[in-house]
Design a protein that fits this description.
Blueprint lengths: L11 E5 L6 H12 L3 E2 L7 H8 L6 H17 L5 E4 L5 H10 L4 E6 L2 H10 L10 H7 L9 E5 L4 H16 L1
Parallel strand pairs: 1-3, 1-4, 2-3, 4-5
Helix pairs in contact: 1-7, 3-4
Length: about 180
């Protein structure tokens, strides 16, 4: 990892991507590198959403709105202070909803090869999202558009390598 002191950022960074891209791994590493707090997006899900996903049923938009609003409220509370939060944020409309609460949020889209992501999902323990839902995640995904503040970072390599690529990409946005 970088040996320079952490650089605080006034931005809230939303670490986004399909299940299995490493949002929960990269988010805390990125937050530590930037010197800001991290919030796990899954913790904002109401119990009914977790039960639904655990049963292998994809969430619909009505399930997601309260979850996105809760993440947006957290991000709004960190405006000007900085923070990192994870959220799949797969659709543009979901990112727009998050920006309603946190207009200055930046998005870090973790991207990667489907086979690699599925392999990583299969290896993780104790997570409610089954690999069977990966196809629905990719089908739903709308990548960041040119008018959205954010960067794409490939998830190949170690968590530390991914984090360093993310920090470098986010710093380029600040220049």
């Amino acid at each position: 990892m970088n040996t320079a002191p952490p650089r605080s950022t006034p931005h809230v960074v939303v670490v986004m991507g399909v299940a299995g891209t490493g949002k929960t791994t990269i988010g805390p590493l990125l937050a530590a590198e930037l010197g800001v707090p991290y919030a796990e997006g899954d913790d904002f899900h109401p119990p009914a959403n977790i039960e639904k996903m655990s049963a292998g049923t994809p969430l619909d938009d009505d399930d997601r709105w309260p979850w996105l609003d809760a993440i947006g409220e957290w991000a709004h509370g960190r405006a000007g202070l900085g923070g990192v939060v994870s959220s799949s944020a797969l659709k543009r409309s979901y990112r727009d909803r998050l920006r309603t609460g946190a207009p200055d949020a930046l998005f870090l889209h973790l991207t990667g090869d489907r086979a690699l992501i599925e392999e990583r999902m299969a290896d993780r323990k104790g997570h409610f999202m089954p690999t069977a839902l990966l196809d629905s995640q990719f089908a739903t995904l709308q990548p960041l558009q040119a008018d959205e503040a954010g960067v794409d970072v490939d998830v190949s390599g170690t968590p530390e390598e991914i984090t360093q690529r993310a920090v470098a990409a986010l710093r380029r946005l600040d220049t």
